[in-house]
Structures are given as C-alpha cells and as structure tokens.
Design brief:
The protein has 217 residues and is mostly helical. The protein is built from eleven helices and no strands. It has one domain.
Length: 217
Amino acid sequence: MKELQTPTNELVDEYIDKFNNDARYYLADQAIINLFQKFPENRKLEDILLKISVINDLYSTNIFGTFIMARHILSLQIDNALLTADPKIVNMIATGHGISKPKGNGDRNFYSFATKYCNWHNKDNYPIYDSFVHKILIAFRDKDSFSEFEESDLRDFPKFKLIITDFKNKYSLSSHTLKEIDKFLWMYGQTIFPNNYGKKEIRMVTNAIANAGLRAR
C-alpha cells in the first residue's frame, strides 16, 4: 500500500480535478446528472428502469435483475423519503427485492447500488459506498483514528454517514460538499489501492450514454 497523505482541502481539490479531467468519470457523472434532472421522481416504472440501467452500466453495480429492482423501488414510493433524507431507504432498496444469491440462499444485498441510487436523488445527504471508499476509510482509521467504528459499520448506512461526517470534521474539510468528499475518497482510494481499469470501462461509459439517448454537456 502506498503511504497515506493527510487529507487537506488542497489534496481534496487535487483529486477532484483529477476526477473532472478524466473523461471516463466526468462523462459518466454528466450523463447521470442529465438523466436524474430529466426524471427526478420514482413514480413510473420505465423512468426507474432507465435510471437503474444507466447506474448499473456506468458503475458496474451488478444488478442482475434490473426489471425486478425497478418494480421493487416503485413499490417503495421513495420520493418523500429521499427529500427528507430518510436513511432507512438505503437498506429498503438494497434488500427485499427478490433477486436471489447465486446458490439461492436469500436475496443479494445491493448496498453499494442503493447508496448510489439515493445519492443521485439527494447528493447532500446520501454518501456513496463502494469498495474503494471502504478500503480508504479503514486505512485512515488505522492511521489517524479519525473515528471509532468497526469495519461492518461501513455497510450500515446511518453509521456510514456518521463516519463520513467524522472524516470531514477530523481533517477540517468544511469547505467541501459531501459529493466532493465522495469523489475524493473514491479517487484517492484508487490511488492507494489501485485496480486495473481497461478499455472496457471507457466503452461502458460511451455505450450507456448512447443507450440512454443522452449527450454530455
């Protein structure tokens, strides 16, 4: 693992710039922004299905039954809860949908997808969880003790949100929004725990934008 730098506002800005200057990530962001602005509600199955499909393609969330998930989200009637930042909605989306695990031992838990789906409706109140964020938060906890938590707490959304708040407060990152902290953790997590991204990811972004009939601004 590479040596961790202490997070500062300048370091966060540096990685936000890297995000914005990488076509793979910036175009994906713009595509989803355009889509959710056009379809902000979750009252039509076709709108929900389109939003799930784009998130699934751009961020590889592995929803193997997009139609089943769309019907599940429709049944939850989540719009008011999203507006009031109800944290319970994340778990309600992630579970109870009926998409079974490979060996049929209960439903899959689509926690990472659920945080993304909620985030794009209310970016100020739903931080995004994924494997890079998970690893980098553990690394900073072990280095600086910025927050007291167990690893399993990262997959409990109310606790996860408090951990992100602790991170922001510990390093005095008050000039940055929750969405900017999201981008920093994700981008910096990839730097510290690199993964191999190939041309497949770029192609997925291009195809998802085309399939959704969107154009990045």
